[in-house]
Amino acid sequence: MNAVIGNKPPKRCAVYCRVSSDERLDQEFNSIDAQKEAGHAFIASQRTEGWIPVTDDYDDPGFSGGTMERPALKRLLADIEKSKIDIVVVYKIDRLSRSLADFARMVEIFDRRGVSFSAVTQQINSATSMGRLMLNVLLSFAQFEREVTGERIRDKFAASKKKGLWMGGRPPLGYDVVQRRLVVNPLEAAIVQRIFADFSRLQSVTALVRVLSEENVTTKAWTTQEGKFNPGSPIDKKALSYLLRNRIYRGELSYRGQWYPGLHEAIVDEKAWAAVQAILAVEAHRRAADTVARGRSDALLRGLLHDATGAKLHTTFTRKNGREYRYYVSKAEKQFGAAAKTCERIPADAIESATVAQIKTVLSSPEAIAAVCRLIETEGAPLDEAPIVLGLGQLGEVWEQLYAAERHRLVNLMIERIDLVDGGLKITWHPLGWRELLREFGPQTIGAELVELEAVA
Fold this sequence. Notes:
Hect, E3 ligase catalytic domain fold, Rossmann fold, alpha/beta, flat, 3-stranded mixed sheet
């Protein structure tokens, strides 16, 4: 136990140490050890002032001084809040922080708990006004140094990319990384070349994804410098489209949207590349036209239909002999093709007609509508049943004459979800939506006008 010399009251001192890089942490004596030794020696030199070290040290190896997200620092601040520490000792002030804003927050905590701050090599004590001034000046230089270092790193990164060096991240399929250069992986390169050739033949992203899925072809599997293995994942439409447009296979590298000649060998020749890009350009134009077509004939049950697993079904369509056929398919089939489907594709016209038939059955049943009206009245919303029953019955009769957007709106008001079950459909009605629908058929509403038109007819 450390004895206190003199009559000074004891002051509990905590030594905080930090290094930004862990390159030499496995050595017998590293900079953390040097900081800790200097901190304890400094505390020992102040024993006449009542300084004594706390039993624990606070070490943050491999953490930047530009952030407060450091485990030992968090533990230090927590102990300060618990009044376990009187003085914080560091080797240099930039060990505690390189950010003026972060340091200001720490000083606020120090002041609130009556804690002072001392640096071994700079002879600064935050307990004095001159010490505070020197702290702010030195921290300003520390932050300036950090920002300049960051700019130099970014400039070096940009210069390296422009020179064609690989600067990190998952390498693309077909290449390995050796000393910051992409080196062709012969087996993977053959897969990439075959993908380009197959796409030129099939001219369909969906068809090629299905083939790749059946053959278990995945994206790049690689191991980081730290030894962490990252397995490849199945190639979906998004990944395949990115691969087919990636100019890395032409021997180039990108930086901030610009492409520069790389140091690596091209995998795809100019002829194969040009053929694929021409097909993709035509596909983009056709996809834009298909989007417009889907907007004109929107799926009635979009967002409502679920398969037996509870997953939503998505819409798709095909064209044969100039005619369009619409379907509801599983998300897996839409992404990876028919081989990955979780349910059979369902003809859109058939299932939409079945749903509309159930809607019309409800709309044409005065007893059902009256029951809904009475339910809503119990919640304090009086309704006139007679015009509502007549109006909804009329709605069922004129359903086919409504615009597609209006039919879609009404279906979403009435139905919360539709599940595919053995033997048919299970419709979950939407209580809040029905309440809104019934109010639309009150006096002075569209529903009332429909009743009047029917009476005139």
